[in-house]
Every structure is written in C-alpha cells, then in structure tokens.
Amino acid sequence: MLTLVIGNKSYLSWSLRAWLALKQTDLPFTEIKLPLDTPEFYDRIFQYSPSGKVPVLIHDERTNLRRNPAGISPDAGMA
Ligand SMILES: N[C@@H](CCC(=O)N[C@@H](CS)C(=O)NCC(=O)O)C(=O)O
C-alpha cells in the first residue's frame, strides 16, 4: 500500500502534481493531508518526511516521486 502525504491540492502545485501522477495509475493509495504553515503540520510532518516537506510518498521506503516515479511499480505507466 502506498501513502501520499500532501498539503493542500488547491494551492500547492507540488502536492497537486504528486497526487495527479498517482491518480493516473491504478495503484491504490491512502492520502494524508497536512495543513501547511500550521502547528499541526510541524507536529506531524517529520513522522513522514525527514526533510519536513510535502509531498512525500511512503512505500516500503520513502520515495521521491519526481526522481523515481516508475520505481514504485514498473507497470504503472508512470515512466
Ligand atoms: N523542492 C521541494 C518541493 C516541496 C516543497 O517545497 N514543499 C513545500 C510546500 S510546496 C513544503 O513542504 N514546505 C514546508 C516547509 O518548508 O515548512 C522538494 O524537493 O520536494
């Protein structure tokens, strides 16, 4: 199972891009939204993202979507 941790898709293009890329596959994923620039964001983000940034995709290991999209599933059509 994949988990995508994002901010707000309406005004954060990095989050939207990652979400769109995953939506274009048939891969099931869980979406966790963290409200950027809030105490909740900084309380929770580091359990998912060592850099403290979104988006982050959690698989068996943390994956940078932009650098290795096809690495998640070679048959997902993301290459
Ligand atoms: N260049 C970044 C893009 C991601 C990014 O900058 N995310 C911003 C929101 S668009 C973020 O998480 N900011 C939180 C913070 O800096 O506190 C990356 O390498 O992933």
What does this molecule look like?
Helix content is 22%, strand content 19%. By secondary structure, the chain is α+β, with helices and mostly antiparallel strands. The chain has a single domain (2-69), classed as Glutaredoxin (3-Layer(aba) Sandwich), CATH 3.40.30.10. The protein has a four-stranded mixed β-sheet, covered by helices on one side. The mean pLDDT is 86. Bound molecules: glutathione.
Ions, cofactors and other ligands present here are: glutathione
N/C terminus separation: 20 Å
**SSE ordering:** EHEHEE
Q: How many strand elements?
A: 4
Shape verdict: globular
Look at the helices and sheets and give the structural class: alpha+beta
Strand line-up across the major sheet: 2-1-3-4
Uncertain spans: none
Kindly provide the name of the CATH class.
Answer: Alpha Beta
Residue-averaged pLDDT: 86
Oligomer: single chain
The number of helical segments is 2
The total tally of domains equals 1
- Biggest beta sheet summary: 4 strands, mixed
Looking at the structure, the CATH topology is Glutaredoxin
Element layout with pairings:
Elements: E1 2-6, H1 13-23, E2 29-33, H2 39-44, E3 56-58, E4 62-63
The structure holds glutathione (GSH).
Glutathione (GSH) binds next to loops.
Question: What is the structure about, briefly put?
Answer:
This protein is of the alpha+beta class.
Offer a few descriptive terms.
79 residues, Glutaredoxin, alpha+beta, 19% strand, 4-stranded mixed sheet, 2 helices, single chain, binds glutathione
